[in-house]
């Protein structure tokens, strides 16, 4: 099975007000974190009244939870199944590395999850849980990838998945801090898989 580059799918533009609100909120979080926007900012960007934002999402926490739930669902929906016989774990891991680079590092932005994690002290319990839920999906899937790739038992594969995620996120932070894109490949290259 040929692995898909799971980061390169683009969300179709939406005329639905709720999705427009979520799109604006997600972009604002990526730009500046949880405190980077108000409902008034979102309303102005979407072209509606602030009361309309509150109608769909009574609180900021409600809005961010909705954004994270959508983000998690979309991420999960495009993941290849690591348990099918023809799953290509090597190509999948390389695509994950490349996709993380193209979606976050090359755009000189942090992932929505990195930005929310940096603001963890500001998050409500519900937002914190939605963030944790996303990471559990990512780690659970990568655990299965490493079980296939390295023939590891589940506990060891989960450790590898955590190391891998921490490496990519750390590499993206290093690039942002130094302005040197080359750091990403230097840090990520030991994880790259040779083609068969």
Name the features.
globular; 196 residues; Tetracycline Repressor, domain 2; mainly alpha
Describe the structure.
The longest helix is centred in the C-terminal third of the chain and has 26 residues, at 125-150. With 196 residues, the chain is mostly helical. It has helices at 17-32, 39-46, 50-56, 60-77, 89-105, 112-118, 125-150, 154-178, 182-188. The two termini are 14 Å apart. The protein is built from nine helices and no strands. The protein is globular, with a radius of gyration of 18 Å. Helix 1 (17-32) packs across helix 4 (60-77) and helix 2 packs across helix 3 (50-56). It has a domain at 60-191: Tetracycline Repressor, domain 2 (Orthogonal Bundle). The chain is 67% helix and 0% strand.
Query: What is the CATH superfamily label of one domain?
Result: Tetracycline Repressor, domain 2
CATH architecture of one domain: Orthogonal Bundle
Count of distinct strands:
0
Binned, the helix content reads 55-70%
Distance between the termini: 14 Å
The 3D shape can be described as globular
CATH class of one domain: Mainly Alpha
Order of helices and strands: HHHHHHHHH
Number of helices: 9
Strand percentage, roughly? under 5%
Structural class from helices and strands? mainly alpha
Q: Largest beta sheet, briefly? A: none
Annotated CATH topology of one domain: Tetracycline Repressor, domain 2
Determine Rg (CA atoms, Å): 18 Å
Mean pLDDT: 92
Q: Detail the poorly predicted runs.
A: none
């Amino acid at each position: 099975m040929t692995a898909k580059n799971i980061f390169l799918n683009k969300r179709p533009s939406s005329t639905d007000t709720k999705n427009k609100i979520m799109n604006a909120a997600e972009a604002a979080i990526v730009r500046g974190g949880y405190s980077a926007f108000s409902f008034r900012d979102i309303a102005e960007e979407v072209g509606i009244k602030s009361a309309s934002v509150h109608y769909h999402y009574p609180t900021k926490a409600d809005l961010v939870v909705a954004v994270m739930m959508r983000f998690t669902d979309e991420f999960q929906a495009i993941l290849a199944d690591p348990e099918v016989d023809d799953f290509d774990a090597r190509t999948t891991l390389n695509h994950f590395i490349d996709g993380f680079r193209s979606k976050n590092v090359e755009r000189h932005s942090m992932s929505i999850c990195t930005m929310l994690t940096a603001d963890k002290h500001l998050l409500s319990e519900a937002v914190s849980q939605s963030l944790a839920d996303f990471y559990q999906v990512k780690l659970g899937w990568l655990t299965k990838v490493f079980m296939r790739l390295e023939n590891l038992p589940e506990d060891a594969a989960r450790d590898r998945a955590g190391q891998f995620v921490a490496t990519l996120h750390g590499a993206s932070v290093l690039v942002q801090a130094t302005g040197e894109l080359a750091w990403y490949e230097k840090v990520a290259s030991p994880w790259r898989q040779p083609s068969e």
